[in-house]
Amino acid sequence: MTDLLQIVSRLEESGGTLVLDGDRIRYSVPSEDAEAHALLLELRKHREKVKTFLQERAIIPAMPPGVRLIRWEPKPAPVVLTQYSVVTDVSRFISMTILELRAAITGKQWQAGHRSVRELTERLEQCGVVLQVSDVDAGR
Fold it and tell me: pTM for this one?
């Protein structure tokens, strides 16, 4: 399978594509690229292996150029994602967060950094400022 992976990778690096369409393998290669056509001929010799490879690859998305997948072991849902931030200028952070809070309350989410009122008040609490916001959907 490693040889097959190398052939598919070389084909795709040269601008070719391979996709599984039901039971058929669809492909495209640059018309002027002799190497891509030679790789395609090699892949045709192993049609069933290519089909199996493409079925397995459909589960794992193709990595962008320059990215190598080291491990693929997705965890079962739900997965809690955590973001950590370090505030070095607390006064400035509080002032800016209050401005973002004002924007979130008035529905200008882009000015609020696309954070909800609840997220912003929680960020302020972590810096020692506790607020109560009334007449606003806190989850917004």
Answer: 0.43
